Amino acid sequence: MQRRDKILQLVGIPHSAFLSVVFGMMLASFPMGMFVVFHSSIGGDVTHALPLGSLYEFQGISLGVLSGIELGDAFLILWAVYVVLFAISVLGPKAGFIKTVSAILSRGKIEAGSNYMVSITQWFSITILVSAGIAYMQEWVGIPIVPPPVENDLVQFFLISLSPLAEEFGFRMLLIGLPLFALYGYKTTARHFLKSLWSPSSSLHIYSSKKPLLLIVLVGVLFGFAHIAVGESWSEGKFAQATAGGIILGWAYFRFGFVAALLIHWATNYFIFAYANFLAQINETSVTSAFSHPLITTMEILFLVSGILSVVVLVTGCYYSWSQRRLEV
User: Fold this and answer.
1) At a CB cut-off of 8 Å and minimum separation 6, what does 191 contact?
2) Which of 110, 195, 281, 289 has the fewest beta carbons closer than 10 A?
C-alpha cells in the first residue's frame, strides 16, 4: 500500500495538471466552434443559414420535421445539449471536478467514478493514446487510415458534432444498455429502466463483469465495422482503431454512465475539429493542413502524456487491488 501511494503521489501532480489543461481546452472549444460556424467562411457558399433539410443525410426525414430549422439552429441545439451534459459532468456525480482534482494533487488518490469530468478527461486521453499507437503500428506495416472524402468543411463539422449523440444512443444505450437491463434489471418501473440506461453499473445488480465485457467487445467490433462499411466510409485501416475506441466507449458507458461515454466521443470529434477548423480559418488554410499546425501537434503531445499518466494510475491501482485480494485469500 505504501509503495502504491508513493507511485500515485509521484504522478499525482503532473496527472492532475494535465487533466486540468485538457478540461480547460475543452471549455475553450465551445466559443471556437461558434466563431467557426457564425463568423468564418468555412463552408464557402454553404453557410449557417442553410436549411437542414437540404443536406443529403437528412433527405429521408420528413421535411415537416426540419421545416424552418437552419444549420446554425442545429448547431445551437447541439451546443446547448453538450453544455448541459458538460455542466453535469463537472458537478457530479459524487464530487465536483476541482475537489476531485485537488484530492489527486494532495494525496495522489483518485476515487473511481467520483467525478464524471475526471473520468472523461482521463479516458479521452487513453483513447487518443491507444488510437495513436494503432495508427503508428498500421502505418509501419503499410496499412494507412484514410478518411472519407469531404465535400464541405461546414457540413463535415456539423456531422462530426452530431455523430456522438446518434452513435452513443445507438451503439451504447441501445446495444449495450438494453441487453444489460434485460439480463440484470430487477424492477419493471420506468424509473429503473431509464436509470439503468443512463448508468448501468450503478443501477443494476451486476456481480460479474464477464458478460458485460463480452457484450462491450462485440458491440465495439460492430462499431469498428460500421466505420468502414456504411456509406462513404473510412478505409479498412480504420477498423482496428474504431473497434478499440468502441470498446473504450463501451467500458466508459458501463462503468461511468452515458454522459461519460458521450462526452469522450464528443471530445474525439467536436473538440478536436473545433481547434482544427478554427486554426484553418485564422491561418487561411485547409482543415487538413491545420492538423499539421504546431498547436495541434502540441495538443497531441499533451494528450499522449496525459494518456500515459492515466494508464500508470489505472494500472497501479488495479495491480495493488489485485494483490490485496490475493493476500486476503
Assistant:
1) none
2) 289
Give me Rg for the CA atoms of the chain. Answer: 21
pLDDT at residue number 234: 74
* DSSP-derived 3-state class of residue 85: helix
How many H-runs (helices) and E-runs (strands) does the chain carry?
Answer: 15, 0
Tell me if 187 sits within 8 A of 238, measured CB to CB. Answer: no
Residue 184 makes CB contacts below 8 A (sequence gap 6+) with: 196, 200, 204, 205, 206
Q: In this structure, what are the phi and psi dihedrals at residue 13, rounded to the nearest 5 degrees?
A: -65, -55
Give the CA dihedral 241, 20, 276, 59, nearest 10 degrees: 70
pLDDT at residue 254, rounded to an integer = 93
The pLDDT tens digits of the residues spanning 223-254 come to 999 888 876 677 788 888 999 999 999 999 99
Q: Which of 4, 81, 70, 17 is nearest to 309 (CA)?
A: 17
- Per DSSP, 54 falls in state G
Look at residue 63 in the predicted model and tell me its pLDDT: 52
pLDDT in the model for residue 115: 86
Q: Cis peptide before 93, with omega less than 30 degrees from 0? A: yes
The C-alpha cell 439503468 sits at: 196
Please answer whether residues 149 and 159 qualify as being in contact, where contact means their C-beta atoms are separated by less than 8 angstroms: no
3-state secondary structure of 138: helix
C-alpha cell at 193: 429502466
What does DSSP assign to residue 149? P
**Which tens digit of pLDDT belongs to each residue from 40-66?**
888 888 888 888 777 766 655 555 556
Name the residue with cell 502504491.
Answer: 4
